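2024-03-11 09:14:02 DEBUG pipeline.ingest accepted 1 chain
2024-03-11 09:14:02 DEBUG pipeline.ingest length=382
2024-03-11 09:14:03 DEBUG pipeline.predict start
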Amino acid sequence: MVPADVRGAFRKAYGRDPQIVASAPGRVNLIGEHTDYNGGQVLPIGIDRRTWIALGRTQGVASRAVSATEAEAGAFDITRPARTGKWWDYLLGVAAELKRPLPQLDIAVTSDVPTGAGLSSSAALEVAFALALTKLVDEDGPAAEIALTAWRAETTFVGVQCGIMDQFASALAVEACALRLWCDTQRTEQVPFDEFVLIFDTGVTRALRGSEFNARQHECREALQLLQRRNPALRTLSGATRDEVLSAHLPLPLDRRALHVVEENLRVSEAAEHLARDRILPAHLLYESHSSLRDLYECSSPELDWFVERAMREPGVNGARLTGAGWGGCAIAVGAEGALKTMAARASAEYRTAFGKTARTWISRASAGASLATPAELESST
């Protein structure tokens, strides 16, 4: 998608041009799953699927929002954000977190980031809106602050208790790089990553508020509290060592959850070091990550497991794993573009036979994070 799409949607809805146009990408996480809200490291990339948002001030008594991917249009008072249970809660949450006087707005959204697939469509919407709205009120916010505003919107207002990874990846991603993010300190480092990534959407949708996601967070908090009785200086679950977890004899399933978090955090460090040194993401780390998510964190699915096992047999594929929270959604495979195209075609046909479902596939490379449309881009879309 390009600025012309959202500019055209804005014109169609409101009969005028927008004042600001911004966009932000979805993301896939190369490695480091369920470590973010446990204070650990993650290694996501921005993908070449984006959400675009156009907005402008209005003299009306209410704000209005339309989306090319949502049938229902919204009308709401953005100066007094209140949850509605509708898709525009993500916009209202950002407005609430800015904590400053805002004008009523007309808003249009277009996106090719799939929803319900674990590719952070909500983060892309929040980050794009946070960037656009900040610019509209004549302020320039650093990318990390844009990400935090979007994250607080999702956790405080919408009510999904996620870590900061999705919003940071969407806001700070750099082309041909993976974002190494320390979630406890918000430290970031860009590491080179120029391989292709096959994204395989199993078609098994899951909503975080209706899944076991919050249950896993609770289990991790319990595990941390028990470990802190033995080591009061321990700040985060990811900061524990494998020996600490094993020697604590945590009750089931807390022992498995803690062991996954600790070992996954180490895998992120090893992956980032390999990429920084020789630009290779070792396949064994991806496969080990998936096995841990399946067996210790218990957040995989038969469809995701099938894809990873299928990738192991495909020449030219350099590793695969589920990505996102799990319980459905997407898996990724890393490798050469030609090999991934071949696998996408073969695996899609075999998947349909095995599960009776149609998978969606995309091949992407690490893409840039949130940005404002330039005057030249908007002019060329006239």
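2024-03-11 09:14:41 DEBUG pipeline.report The mean pLDDT is 94.
2024-03-11 09:14:41 DEBUG pipeline.predict end
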